[in-house]
Design goal:
Strands 4-13-14-17-12-20-18-19 form an eight-stranded mixed β-sheet. Strands 6-2-1-10-22 form a five-stranded parallel β-sheet, covered by helices on one side. It has eleven helices and 22 strands. With 456 residues, the protein is α+β, with helices and mostly antiparallel strands. Helices cover 30% and strands 24% of the residues. The chain binds flavin-adenine dinucleotide (FAD). Flavin-adenine dinucleotide binds next to helix 1, strand 3, helix 5, strand 15 and strand 16.
Length: 456
């Protein structure tokens, strides 16, 4: 039997491993990006973006996580939802352990964060006194400089086990053919009895078009729209000692909207995430090279109902507008300027206590780009978070726009992530059932397990 896996991110790689270990199927993994060790984003060394296509930040072996700092959230309560996978939290925990063991085997650091209950409870109490929920959980941090090497060892072992990889190869279309499928690139056709579609957020929009054509059911969910916030690393130190990437959640007083912090990078760097028609921001932290700043995302949840439900389109239009206002670059603004409604300039930014780690940005006015409701939510949230992350609402805190998390198209699936089209499985962030490396990997294993069972 032929299994085709679209996407060599954590979902695709962990699916390939399970299939290689437990079946005699021919497994081919296709990715439009490069091998992990050849992915070199110039912005990670703070050079100008060379606008490679597809962007090395999110495409290639290892997926979007390969050049990230690899914060592994080792709890079923971060990065996904056991209910949406028809599983109990304990079941998911067992899969998470397996994923963690694999990363450890290939060289992830043995240090674990978020294990001191007394400190965690203290932080929980402090946050809830201000109407903020602190979500705790164990975390491991691989580090941006280590993650590509860990991925490369995993990749080489998969190849030794007989998994075939095709990099720099983009699947354009998927068609049904009898009980199986044909996936086509511009010049080649791949026959498959089973497909696991794991194209990540970068390929989610593309896959949605294919899914509609194939008659795969889907539902619209929310997206998270917001900014990346950067401040002196000393401000975050007391929290970092308790949990490396602490997650905070609150409902704004003004709109009663959910806002959350996401992907905190102590002593990290803000980076660009470039797509064909817009640019967004993200952040990462390195194990060996440290900046004087810490960054995190502040994201406001958007759900749309009748007559417009397509949150992806809405989010994309916000990203395009922000890119236009930034002249093709992310917009950068001091918190003081955002809160008081004035544009930032390099002269005003020079008065900040910190220097931006992403220089390839345009000083401007984020309120010209993001909807008023989101800007209000962001300003209010930063002011409230100041009670927990003391100093984050300082005048010279830097705000970059936009950062948008697209995982709104959700496919109703079985407990093995099979869609309503038999033998077509989805996994990872593009499935709408994961939002991070570990959960993406778990969904990959679950999908592979579904194929293993079919052969029994
Ligand atoms: C800068 C950055 C930092 C991050 N940091 C963290 C972190 O610290 N911790 C964490 O948990 N998460 C982090 N994330 C998110 C995490 O990387 C993703 O949640 C995770 O990688 C999703 O895994 P996936 O396998 O679903 O998809 P991806 O990792 O996105 O992989 C999908 C792959 O599919 C390929 N692809 C897409 N379409 C096609 C096509 N048509 N044909 C062929 N190939 C295709 C892409 O090239 C890509 O390599 C970060 C993301 C970014 C961008």
């Amino acid at each position: 039997m032929d299994v085709l896996i679209i996407g060599a991110g954590p979902a695709g790689m962990f699916a390939a491993e399970k299939l290689a270990d437990e079946t005699n199927h021919t497994i081919t993994v296709i990715d439009m990006g490069k091998e992990s060790v050849n992915r070199k984003c110039s912005t990670l060394s703070r050079d100008m973006c060379t606008k490679c296509e597809p962007c090395d930040i999110y495409a290639g072996v290892g997926g979007a996580g390969a050049l990230s700092d690899g914060k592994l959230n080792l709890t079923p309560h971060i990065g996904g939802d056991p209910d949406s996978l028809h599983r109990s939290a304990d079941e998911i925990r067992r899969y998470i352990q397996k994923v963690d063991e694999t990363f450890l085997k290939y060289g992830a650091d043995t240090d674990i964060f978020g294990v001191n209950d007394d400190d965690l409870n203290l932080l929980k109490r402090k946050a809830s006194a201000h109407g903020i929920e602190f979500i705790s959980g164990k975390q491991r941090h691989m580090g941006s400089d280590k993650t590509p090497l860990i991925i490369d060892k995993f990749y080489k072992e998969l190849k030794q086990k007989g998994v075939k990889f095709r990099t720099q190869t983009k699947i354009e279309t998927i068609e049904r053919s009898g009980e199986g499928f044909i996936a086509r690139t511009e010049g080649e056709a791949f026959k498959a009895d089973f497909i696991i579609a794991a194209p990540g957020r970068a390929g989610a929009y593309w896959f949605r078009t294919q899914a509609r054509k194939l008659g795969i059911d889907n539902k619209y969910g929310p997206i998270d729209v917001g900014v990346r916030v950067e401040f002196p690393s000393t401000i975050y130190e007391p929290i970092e000692e308790i949990m490396y990437d602490a997650k905070f959640k609150l409902y704004t007083y003004t709109y009663d909207d959910l806002v959350r912090t996401f992907c905190t990078n102590p002593c990290g760097f803000v980076t660009e995430e470039r797509y064909p028609d817009f640019v967004m921001v993200n952040g990462h932290a390195k194990k060996d090279e440290k900046s004087e700043n810490t960054n995190l995302a502040i994201l406001s949840r958007i759900e749309l109902t009748d007559p417009v439900e397509d949150t992806t389109e809405y989010g994309r239009s916000i990203a395009r507008l922000a890119t236009t206002i930034g002249g093709g670059k992310p917009i950068l603004q001091r918190f003081k300027d955002l809160a008081t409604g004035q544009r930032s300039t390099w002269t005003r930014l020079a008065r900040c206590q910190i220097a931006p780690t992403l220089r390839n940005a345009t000083p401007g006015d984020i309120s010209m780009a993001l909807p008023h409701r989101i800007v209000t939510n962001i300003v209010e949230s930063i002011e409230r978070l100041d009670n927990v992350i003391e100093g984050i609402a300082s005048d010279s805190t830097l705000i970059y726009a936009s950062e948008i998390k697209f995982y709104d198209t959700k496919y109703p699936v079985t407990e093995h992530l099979e869609t309503n089209i038999p033998n077509l499985f989805v996994a990872g962030d593009a499935s709408g059932h994961s939002r991070g490396i570990v959960y993406a990997a778990v969904t990959g294993i679950l999908a592979a397990e579904g194929i293993v069972h079919k052969g029994e």
